[in-house]
What we know:
By secondary structure, this protein is an alpha+beta fold. The protein contains eleven helices and nine strands.
Amino acid sequence: MIQDASSSDQQAFVDAVDAWVQKALRPVARKFDLADEYPHEIVEQMKELGLFGATIGEEYGGLGLSAWTYAQIVLKVASVWMAPCGIFNSHLIMASAIERNGTEAQKREYLPRMATGTYRGSIGLTEPNAGSDLQAIRTVARLSGDHYVVNGAKTWITNSMHGDGTLLLVKTDPEAEPAHRGMSLLIADKGPGFHVVGKLKKLGYRAIDTCELTFQDYRVPRSKLLGGVEGKGFAQTAGGLELGRINVAARGAGIAEGALKLALRYAQEREAFGKPICQHQAIQLKLADMATQVEGAKLLIKRAATKYDRGERCDLEAAMAKLAGSEAGAACSQEAMRIFGGYSYSVEYEIERYYRDAMLMCIGEGTNEILRQVIAKQLVSRNRI
């Protein structure tokens, strides 16, 4: 049972994560980002904190945190360095899918190990030809005896190099019409035929192992079909995206808040024309707009997370939160760059990392263009005349 998001225990955990972020994450963020180096020691610390089991139920060894508490944790981390959020977020989306849709045997096999970070997972959805349009995937799993034989490719898969497996979206019936009826999810552990091609070089979101994967006659036991029934993969994926979008919304809002804090400090330190630039109207207008976007995004995130915690449908709310949070991150990081002026282009100032990381939030977990369509369709559906 998910606890009340306002409980003192959960708030204490948020505070503990915030203390860890300031003590352990802030001093090393720039080093790992610029070197594009995987932060193994940070991962071990996240295991000790319990972040890999944050939203996993207590009966499986997790913390059972509410979505709102989880979102606050993500905000704290992303306000200093967004990239580590991806390490535990992709993992927790896989865990959430197993907990919500898996058989009891699948839950007992995976969730306790996932809660401790002993088994770290990812989500294998996107393909070179299929991003927002998941029904266009080409990876196929054909049943042969008591195994599925998988052939295909995935790309932009976070946690795939250093993780232990992925929740793999495949077509178990490529001829199904509509296509989503032939799609399934497989719990795919690394093994023969599961190839990590290599880490992708990225503008931002560095240090994290985002990779391409190929599957060549890769065999998955039939018992690893999520839920045990074929054709449910598309619906199971859509359910997991709500938590993923709340997470990305919180990442975007965290970037926005972090950029605002850096800009506020710099605007008070930097002088131009005989006074701190925070006293110039042009800078004041920027700071006011940034702060308003941050607080507005937080409220939408809380609204979506609260509905998620109550078990209510929240696809509209999660989409609105993700749109607002990610756009706030992009806008506030850009405005902070303008406030920093020429110094913003130097890697000696951390604001350039916020700028590089922000745009990914507008693309991941559904592009904002797609989400605007989702929002509009839901608005019409809920307000028919």
